[in-house]
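Final report, Chapter 2: Outcomes

The project's central promise was a pipeline that accepts a single protein chain and returns its three-dimensional structure in a standardized token representation, suitable for archiving and comparison. That pipeline is now operational. To close this chapter, we reproduce one record exactly as it appears in the project archive, with the input sequence first and the structure output second.
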Amino acid sequence: MRAPKKNPFNKSRKRSKFKITNWSEYNNILRNRGRIDFMIAENLSDCWYEDNVSNRRRGGQRKYSDKAIFMCLQIRYLFGLKLRQTQGFIDWIFMVSGLPLTCADYTTLSKRGRKLNVEHLLKKQGREFDYVCIDSTGIQTYTGNEWLENKHGKRYIRRIWKKLHIITDGDGLIIGNSTTDHNKDDRHELKYLINDINTRELVGDTGYDGENIYQILRTKGIKPTIRPPNSVAPKQVFTERQKAVVYQKNKGYHAWRVKNNYGRRELVENTFFRFKTVFGSKFLSRDDDNMKNEMTIKCQLLNKMFEVGRPIPIRVA
């Protein structure tokens, strides 16, 4: 049986309007986001090249340090450059600034970026959160097969895409992410994302609904606030999830939303809006490992922008 359609939001919610109180300051912050000096260290000359004396290994020696590769990739993803253009752009910056440095070759950026360790960029070790929000979105991958298939009369195959899963804190900062295939279930990634995060409550949509999810969260001491499905209420109520289904069926979705303060989940939706507005909805990389690191670096850049300054809105209507 098809699930019943949920009722629309009430009129007062539709007319909600917000005003930014620090617009002059926030306007200057938006201008400063176009600068690249916030991601380049002051002691750039000291950490740009690899110290091969102390880190000697078999075979060819590395010329550039991991920090240098990471900074180059940051600039690439911030401005949406190709690898060759990234090399030319950074070489030009060093030339006009008078620094005796050179950028790594574009093939080096691709190979080293695949093995770059960036998992620590988003983790907040030792911090406890009141609540976190989780969700996923689609990111398109690079492929040129559609035009050739249509040209030769083959059936059109939709563009391949991947899923970006993120967890945000109460301020909208990304504290965890992962990249999977488009057919990966959201619930499968929850256990991995929540593993190193210390929080009291998790807010998610119906994509994370399930008895096993409730059990996983409760064993970690996390309160699950997950939108229950619009299904028929069970005759016998035993579990916490079944109680949520019965409550929504009897009282309605809006009553359940107000009771659990479900509007907090809009933080993660707003984070996806900011992410795609700044970086777009497509990958620049083609290799799977490069794609994963690309999403992590972009999430870290978005956090940097948000930490530099953010708007302070108040509700006016």
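Archive annotation: The longest strand covers residues 132-140.
This record, like all others produced under the grant, will remain available to the consortium after the project formally closes.
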